[in-house]
Amino acid sequence: MKRDVIITEVALRDGSHAMRHQFTVDQVKRSVHGLDEANIPYIEVAHGDGLGGSTIQYGQSLTNEFELIEAAVETAKKAKIAVLSLPGIATKQEIKQAAQLGVSMLRVATHVTEADVSLQHLHLGKELGLETVGFLMMSHMADPIKIVEQAKIMEKGGADVVYIVDSAGALLPNQVADRVRALKQEIGVPIGFHAHNNLSLAVANSLAAIQEGAKRIDGSIRCLGAGAGNTQTEVLVSVLDKMGIQTGIDLYKIMDVAEEIIAPILPQPQEITRGSLVLGYAGVYSSFLLHAQKAAERFGVDSRDILIEIGKRKAVGGQEDIILEVAADLKAYSND
Q1: How many Å apart are CA 291 and CA 296, to the nearest integer?
Q2: Where are the alpha helices (DSSP H) in 166-284?
Q3: Which residues does the annotation mark as catalytic?
Q4: Which pLDDT score is estimated for 272?
């Protein structure tokens, strides 16, 4: 089967955020069966924050993620199952356990300037015989030269693919093109792109990446992902089909999966809300939104002002404590 672009479906991982990590085994089985029938080549399954993410801090899963992974592996007849690991959250033991269950791909995610912390997980993935992916998150926070430097670390560390990840949905098409073009010139492994739709640019940005040579693109069916969701899989497949770019995915079947299997389990329609829009505008993690809203209420300030200031300070995941400091500062300034 010819595939000009290889799509990885991430709704059963990134969509875990929107589902508040409440996926059931039955939902995963039904989703994987439908995606597999539609010829999706890769399906990512894990907690939204990757292996080991089910905690009070990141949100506890309704179902043990290894039960979900096992169900996905057993259900898929053609598709390969992928998992995500974030060093500092996932442990080597959890990666080994996922491999024993039969996953085929390990995607190792780090902040865009911290590729060096991915090496132990990438090495382990190779030892376990897995296809490995380096996942450079928050890629809007680094220029193309810095991203090339970090991608080379992952490539040298054994990554079979390196992804530019627009975690906050903050990149514009020309910025995506600049980053992919720079990687295409400097690294030897395929390039991937993972978008979020906070500025309603996920499909456009994915096309910009493809036009510059990216061969791996992430999508989330029915836009089921964090923030405003990711590149909507069935929409991207439709657009690429009209462009004559082959994905190997059955267009009618992927439309049916979106409508008949995914839509009924959505807690609410995935749309660009005021909150998700400001996340993309400010360029901050979606996990900051709830904290900002609580701080805004406590200090009597606008949560949008908090998030925009957080973006200016280039806060990264794990620095949610800065939100209270920013809210207090904004309150103090308003009283001057």
Answers
A1: 9
A2: 173-186, 202-211, 233-243, 251-257, 274-282
A3: 17
A4: 94
- How crowded is residue 334: how many other Cβ atoms within 10 Å of its Cβ? 12
**48-83 residues labelled b (16+ CB within 10 A) or e (exposed):** bbbbbbbeeebbebebebbebbbbbbebbeebbbbb
b or e along 128-158 (b: 16 or more beta carbons within 10 Å of the residue's beta carbon)? bebbbbbbbbbbbbbebebbbebbbbbbebb
**Consecutive H or E run containing 315:** none
Per-residue 3-state assignment (H helix, E strand, C coil) for 45-72: CCCCCCCCCCECCCECCCCCHHHHHHHH
pLDDT of 192-251, one tens digit each?
A: 999 999 999 999 999 999 999 999 999 999 999 988 999 999 999 999 999 999 999 999
Mean pLDDT of the chain: 94
Query: CA 192: distance to chain centroid?
Result: 11
Q: Give the tokens for residue 33.
A: 């069966």
List the chain residues with pLDDT less than 70.
318, 336
Task: Find the helix or strand (DSSP H, E) in which 28 lies.
Answer: helix 25-37
Task: Give the whole-angstrom CA distance, residue 45 versus residue 71.
Answer: 10
Percent of the chain's residues with pLDDT above 70: 99
CA distance 275 to 293: 9
Tokens of 237: 């497949």
Strand partners, 95: none
Residue 130 to residue 104: CA distance in whole angstroms: 5
Residue 145 CB partners (closer than 8 Å, separation 6+): 182
Asked if residues 166 and 141 have their Cβ atoms less than 8 Å apart, the reply is no
Show Cβ contacts of residue 300 under 8 Å, excluding neighbours closer than 6 positions: 331
pLDDT score of 53: 82
pLDDT of residue 211: 97
Given a contact cutoff of 8 angstroms between Cβ atoms, the answer to whether 246 and 222 are in contact is no
pTM, two decimals, is 0.94
Res 307: pLDDT: 94
Beta bridge partners of 216: 6, 192
